[in-house]
Structure formats: C-alpha cells, structure tokens
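Sequence, please.
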C-alpha cells in the first residue's frame, strides 16, 4: 500500500465526516482517530494535505492566524469517495484516460496527467501558433502597424481602422484569404473621409498625392475591388476556385495607403 495515497483517501474521509470548519491541526486530530497506527503516516500528512488542497479535492481557506482551514469536499473529492481506495480511483481515471481521444492536431498541446486530469499547455500552443505564422509573411508590416497605433488624427478616430488592419494581418497569416479580400474592401470603404473624399474612387482619382500613391490607389480601386466583389456578391456555383496568396496580395498598395494616412495625420 502506498502510504501517501492511503493518507489522502483518509483525509477525504475525515473531511467528509466533519460538520464544521477545521484548521489543518484540528483535522489532523480527526485523522488520528481514524487511523490506529497514525504515527506511521504522520510524516506524510502535510504533503498529502497540500496535494488535496492544491489539486482541488477540498475546499480550503486561510484563517486570521494564517493557518489553512478545511470547509468541505469539492465535487472532485466526492468522486474519490465513490471508490473504496485511492488506488481504485486512479485505476478508474486511467481507464477513462484511455477512452479520451485527442485530435492529432492538438495532441501535443493537451495531455492527460497521472491523475487523469486534462492539462492545457498554453506556452506550447503559442509557440506552435508562432511557428505556423512564420510560414507566411505579414500582410501589414509590424512596424507600420506600430506607427499606425501611435498615430492621432485630430478629426477622426482611427481605432476601427487599426482593428481592421490587425484582423487583416491575422487573416493573412492564417491563410484566410476570403477574409483578407473582404477586410481590404472594408478598409478602402472606411477611410475616404481622411482624405476629404466621399468614396475611394475620389481618393484614387482626385486626391493630390504622388504618382506612386495614385498608381497604388488605382490598383486597389479597380483590381482589388473587382476581386473582393467576386468574393462578396457571386452566387454559389457548381464549381468554385478559392483565392490564394498570390491573388489577394495587395500588401504593397496597402502599405502605401497606410503610410499616407500616417503622414497626413500628424
């Protein structure tokens, strides 16, 4: 018999039997009355109690003296007492563990520990997302996005534009190219008032920008608009072709647009 496992189980039995809050020492007295040869287990008491507390088997709090107090069993603790020993509880958890199928795509991020608990590794997930994103370039240069976040326009609130850009970059990194086209279209429909214009056609045709700026805006206004319209307004067909990175990559033109917005806002 494993001494710690035996003591864990006996502590749960003791907590289940108490009718009022006990501090850790009072509870030890209860356990002493339960186990005739408690002296053989006394050295394991503190470690076993902390395991139950830290892993959610018992409801605890700290009293005014800074001492742990026990109030009752949690649902998890009650589940253990459905079995006649800690070992049988673990055996049942192990069976359930074998029946849980984790999809291969997330099997490294989620794992089941020896107690049968499902553990989520957030750090590993973030690392995998970073690796995934590194396989695709940013649509919006990260430094340009930083500049945009720092930009304050005295006449207009740029927060929606910034969010558009953040979601656009995220969609491109994750290869959601339909969303990319729709978000670019949303941006060019959103920003004309920044240039004193009613619509993006006016920005393209009438705004007094450089030749390179005008060329990029014409590209967005004609080519991008046509591609985005095909995503948004075409009915379902018998056969479809989905957009790819090459078709939807208007990142250079978008960078020219954002740099001009930043320039005229200061």
């Amino acid at each position: 018999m494993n001494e710690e496992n035996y003591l864990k189980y006996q502590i749960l039995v003791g907590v289940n039997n108490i009718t009022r809050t006990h501090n850790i020492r009072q509870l030890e007295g209860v356990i002493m009355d339960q186990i005739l040869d408690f002296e053989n287990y006394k050295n394991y008491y503190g470690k076993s109690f902390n395991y139950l507390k830290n892993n959610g088997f018992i409801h605890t709090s700290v009293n005014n003296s800074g001492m742990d107090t026990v109030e009752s069993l949690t649902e998890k603790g009650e589940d253990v007492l459905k079995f006649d020993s800690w070992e049988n509880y673990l055996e049942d958890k192990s069976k359930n563990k074998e029946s849980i199928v984790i999809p291969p795509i997330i099997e490294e991020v989620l794992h089941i520990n020896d107690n049968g608990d499902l553990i989520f590794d957030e750090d590993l997930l973030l690392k995998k997302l970073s690796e995934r994103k590194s396989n695709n370039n940013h649509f919006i240069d990260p430094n340009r996005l930083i500049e945009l976040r720092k930009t304050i326009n005295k006449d207009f609130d740029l927060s929606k534009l910034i969010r558009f850009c953040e979601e656009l970059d995220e969609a491109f990194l994750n290869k959601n190219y339909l969303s990319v086209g729709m978000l670019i279209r949303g941006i060019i429909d959103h920003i004309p008032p920044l240039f004193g214009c009613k619509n993006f056609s006016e920005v393209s045709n009438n705004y007094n920008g450089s030749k390179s700026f005008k060329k990029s805006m014409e590209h967005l206004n004609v080519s991008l608009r046509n591609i985005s319209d095909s995503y948004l307004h075409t009915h379902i067909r018998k056969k479809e072709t989905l957009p790819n990175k090459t078709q939807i990559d208007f990142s250079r033109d978008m960078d020219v647009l954002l740099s001009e917005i930043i320039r005229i806002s200061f």
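The chain has three domains: 3-92, 100-131, 136-265.
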